[in-house]
């Protein structure tokens, strides 16, 4: 009998974390590495947020809080949902966790039973299917295409739903593609969900504020208010406020679901970090100027990377509406051989050879459920992006 849980055999480690770790090891060993694998803004947390955290420490705000967060942060989140998303959530309908990942996991653990299905559009964030598996459910992958802008159609959603479907996980703007759904596109999906009252919506809005070219963000319960009672609206401060390491995510949803999630959290992490919670209050209630400034930088970087990649024969890179990723196709490179002798049989072989031969770390598309592609995070300095794109171009030009 194995000592380790059989459940653990159903999941794999995060590929993005694994690739980032390998890039760090290579860099520590003296290799010239440009890591474009981590989904993390390179901007520092704004000073006003750091000051609020220091003030909380000085005020002795260093004790346990309620399992799912302080009243002060819940109040700030409630105001944010009303102000920005036209959603009314009372404090009893709000859960705060150690990052958005814990909120997603708590929601799945609180609701899934063996045989329950969760629809996940591909390409997807690498953790979605594994979290479903850990919670005992079955991921049902609905695959999109580059031609559709990596967006799920109403027909695809309808075809993926069965009597066993419990959730759809929805992410816009999305990781890894940056694809953002317009009001009309999202309304087509919510119309399908209205015909299937047993299906709930878990919407990951983490990249809400990272939107470009006039794209206007919207969230499912906002587009279709009748879905409010079966929607868990998830967000956090990590991306928009450059607070990844502070680990604060949150959600609004029906009170019975939030209570079940609170029960799980009370037996796992007890509560989110107190200092981080006070920092998050300032992030939500304080000045928002940094979002506009950061977005201007992200847009410039996006345009740089898209133009450079599309100049490479064999690569096709669509322009995303938001987030800070591009998800180019390498369909035109499959079957060729690198200068180092690696046969490019798939996107994993491409990413591995690219790192070994040029020192550029990207994440292969199979990790996100859609090949042959790779993901670049452009949340890094312009000079690094220029150098990385030049290395990718040289690598591709030398394929035979």
UniProtKB/TrEMBL annotation:
CDD domains: AAT_like. It catalyses: L-aspartate + 2-oxoglutarate = oxaloacetate + L-glutamate. The keyword Ubl conjugation does not apply. Keywords: Aminotransferase, Pyridoxal phosphate, Transferase. Its EC number is 2.6.1.-. The keyword Transferase applies. This is Aminotransferase. It comes from Pontibaca salina.
């Amino acid at each position: 009998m194995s000592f380790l849980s059989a459940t653990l055999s159903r999941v794999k480690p995060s590929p993005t974390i694994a690739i980032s770790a390998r890039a760090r090891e290579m860099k520590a060993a003296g290799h010239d590495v440009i890591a474009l694998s981590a989904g993390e803004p390179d901007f520092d947390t704004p000073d006003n947020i750091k000051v609020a955290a220091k003030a909380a420490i000085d005020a002795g705000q260093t004790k346990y809080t309620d399992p799912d967060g302080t009243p002060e942060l819940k109040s700030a989140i409630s105001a944010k949902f009303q102000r920005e998303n036209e959603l009314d959530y009372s404090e009893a309908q709000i859960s705060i966790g150690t990052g958005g990942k814990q909120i997603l996991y708590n929601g799945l653990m609180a609701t899934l039973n063996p045989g329950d299905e969760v629809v996940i559009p591909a390409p997807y964030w690498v953790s979605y299917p594994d979290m479903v598996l850990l919670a005992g459910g079955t991921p049902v992958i609905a695959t999109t295409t580059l031609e559709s802008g990596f967006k799920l159609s109403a027909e695809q959603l309808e075809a993926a739903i069965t009597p066993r479907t419990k959730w759809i996980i929805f992410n816009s703007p999305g990781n890894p593609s940056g694809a953002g759904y317009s009001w009309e596109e999202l309304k087509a999906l919510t119309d399908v969900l209205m015909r299937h009252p047993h299906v709930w919506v878990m919407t990951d809005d983490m990249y809400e504020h990272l939107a470009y070219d006039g794209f206007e963000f919207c969230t499912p319960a906002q587009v279709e208010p009748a879905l409010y009672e079966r929607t868990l609206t998830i967000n956090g401060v990590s991306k928009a406020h450059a607070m990844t390491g502070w680990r604060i995510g949150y959600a609004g949803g029906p009170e019975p679901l939030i209570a079940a999630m609170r029960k799980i959290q009370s037996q796992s992490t007890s509560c989110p970090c107190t200092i981080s919670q006070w920092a998050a209050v300032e992030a939500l209630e304080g000045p928002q100027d940094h979002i506009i400034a950061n977005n201007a930088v992200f847009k410039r970087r996006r345009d740089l990377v898209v133009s450079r990649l599309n100049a490479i024969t064999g690569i096709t890179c669509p322009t995303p509406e938001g987030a800070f990723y591009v998800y180019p196709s390498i369909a035109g490179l499959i079957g060729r051989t690198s200068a180092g002798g690696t046969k490019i049989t798939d996107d994993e072989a491409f990413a591995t050879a690219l790192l070994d031969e040029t020192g550029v770390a990207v994440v292969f598309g199979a990790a996100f459920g859609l090949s042959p592609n790779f993901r670049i995070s452009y949340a890094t300095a312009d000079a690094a992006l220029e150098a990385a794109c030049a290395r990718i171009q040289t690598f591709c030009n030398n394929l035979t």
